Amino acid sequence: MSIPTKYSPSEVEDKWYQYWMDQNYFHSTPDEREPYAIVIPPPNVTGVLHMGHMLNNTIQDVLIRRARLQGKNACWVPGTDHASIATEAKVVAKLKAQGIDKNDLSREEFLKHAWDWTHEYGGVILEQLKKLGCSCDWNRTKFTMDDDMSEAVIKVFVDLYNKGLIYRGYRMVNWDPEAKTTLSDEEVEYQEKQGKLYYINYKIEGENSALTIATTRPETLLGDTAICINPNDERHANLKGKKAIVPICNRVIPIIEDDYVDLEFGTGCLKVTPAHDENDKVLGDKHNLEVVDIFNDDATLNHHGLHYEGQDRFEVRKAIVKELDSLGALVKVEDHTNRVGISERTKAIIEPRLSDQWFLKMEDLAKPAIKAVLEDEDVKLFPKRFNNTYRHWMENIRDWNISRQLLWGQQIPAFYYDEGKEDFVVAETADKALELAKDKSGNPNLVVNDLRQDADVLDTWFSSWLWPISVFDGIRNPENKEIQYYYPTNDLVTGPDILFFWVARMIIAGYEYKDEKPFENVYLTGLVRDKQRRKMSKSLGNSPDALKLISDYGADGVRVGLLLSSAAGNDLMFDEALCNQGRGFANKIWSAFNLTTLWEVEDIEQPESSKIALEWYASKFQAALLEIEDHYSKYRLSDVLMTIYKLIYDDFCGWLLEMVKPAYQKPIDKITYDKVIALFEDNLKIVHPFMPFITEEIWQHLKTRTAKEALIVANYPKIETFDSELISDFETVKEVVSGIRTIRKDKNIPFKDAIALKVLNNENLDKKYNSVISKMGNLSDVSTVAESVEGALSFRVMSNEYFIPMEGNIDVDAEIKKLTEELNYTQGFLKSVQGKLGNERFVNNAPEPVVAAERKKEADALAKIETLKSSLASLQ
Known about the structure:
The chain is built from 27 helices and 31 strands. The chain has 876 residues and is an alpha/beta fold. It has six domains: 188 residues, HUPs (Rossmann fold, 3-Layer(aba) Sandwich); 116 residues, no CATH class; 172 residues, Isoleucyl-tRNA Synthetase, domain 2 (Alpha-Beta Complex), CATH 3.90.740; 141 residues, Isoleucyl-tRNA Synthetase, Domain 1 (Orthogonal Bundle), CATH 1.10.730.10; 85 residues, hypothetical protein PF0899 fold (2-Layer Sandwich); 63 residues, Helix Hairpins, CATH 1.10.287. The longest helix has 28 residues. It is globular, with a radius of gyration of 37 Å.
């Protein structure tokens, strides 16, 4: 088989991925081996591969491939999330482009369009992961809307409801007016935004006077139902017991007293709008205030908005300020920085809104999950600093708003049975609900058509919090063979931005439904940012095309580029130069392989230099392997890769192959060759998790292999004892060789010319290394001396001195001429620098860094002159 001199990823990657698939290497079924399971953080079904996915899934693939090499039963479960808000928005947009309004469709009709869209686009990201080399068990691919997954979600809802943990309540929620659905607290991002503080006069009923309130949202005054003052505020004692008139709508509202009002903020008078502010709702409940909701579900104003009905809230804000000004009610406007809630999904500004929603009580459910992470450390977070973040959220947890006003998702299994009333039952199916409804209502004549199922769907996270259990069917069939074998899973790799959305909730679900943790370790990656530390996004145009990167640099190159600088929990400053470095590493490994194919192997005596070099590298490999395992145990994957990179690039390619390489057109001995190939194979095994394609390609070329002998299922190297003294001695050997090569270069001594070396061996370096030094330095002779050698070029390594006699090695006259010219130039340069420093005007007026730079030039020139004079003296 002819072997190309250059490595071409495009000709290798598809070939080996298909081979791995054909041989079913990725598939796992329970057996007698130790299981190692990872569940993929399911990307949105709407998604395409971006840099965050690339980093996250490369890390998972490294862990799963390593486990496979270690002989474990490796199972990586892939899948996608139905992403209610994002997917429904895409389907609505597609329908709109076709002239179809979602509101004109029945639920069944809309869902058909959603499924059509999912079937057309839903598998894109999983196919793209294959290009990256991800070795997922594709036979196990799950989707959170699969029938069995949905059945598990509904089963859990019913169970939690029956336990009294799920309830329906009329609460203030986070409303996304773009998606037209409620969001949980965790789906709201808060940003500091520059806004305005508006001071508005409200007339006092029956008086020719007014009070002034300060608000950031003047449009909501149309929903005001009270003015509140602090009972201890002497400024407003005259307002107690009176009423105020809301400008524009002229609603007469009471002036109430409550110490909730901050005496320091604004004017000390607070407008109370119970329908549009959570704190105002608390005040409203406490003082039995009227609730006036002024918004439609798209944040336009409803009939309470009077002549602003149908207009957007922010347009109304501008218009209402103008109207207040024309009425003489606007006192002043100030700049004001405000904390604004933003929808994590649509980026719309959140509107607090009162709504009937379903909630899950979290306080008691969270307790085992708090204990597991923060006390028992049954679940470990990497890096550990995220424990503090986890603690803060879990110890301040609020009830989870689990209902969404969407069509795409698992429909809430609550069935209303009394027309016009809110009486309901909760059951897994309509038939079971009917039996419950008959019993609860006392009406045996009810039929299924009398039932009306709740129109809302469950929050997407309510399905994905069951992911490590439901992918193994552990909710519907809790004692099945697979859940018992694979659960708990081993490692979870995800971003810290979903530590609350997903990780914490999976831990909660694990203890509630399996009485056990869902995974042992959570590796929290950083965010991928650009060189300017900006988060990568489509809007900024700073996110490279993931597939183009793979096309340009090869999947192995991109994987190495991503992981070279992605320490756990720290953001990755992505630079394409890293991928280029990864490609360069692949080319270096390929060149090393190519070199071994050029050698002619014969049964001849093994040189002493090769024997010692191989012993050294075997120990060096074992020391590196020990270091690698330590890094793996701490999830320092970038450190693992860097250790492997230096071992292969510097020690194997840069030193070992040079030390054992036969002379030009000479054969290599079989003992050395076989050992080099064995060490090369060990190198391929440890780098395979990071660079699966090139390593499999070289592995298959090195020997004829059966399918059972493919690298992907080879045996990972075992840690063995090694000679640390040998490794230490070799660092000295490397320095000696570097010293010889430096003199050869500086003195233009051709490498083909053998030279002698004399050693003042103060360190008692073993003479067995002389054969290596001789070969790497092309020495004719190495001898030990008792004192310094006169008339020789020398260098020092530790306390050892090494001398290369000049006689016969260099042209003395040419060297004297070269050194004299360099000395004359340096003396002239020194004179010009000292001339500047002797000029008082320059020294007194020039900036201090400039003067300091000149003084350094002077010192450097003086030192160089001394060295040149010394060298000349040794030649004369």
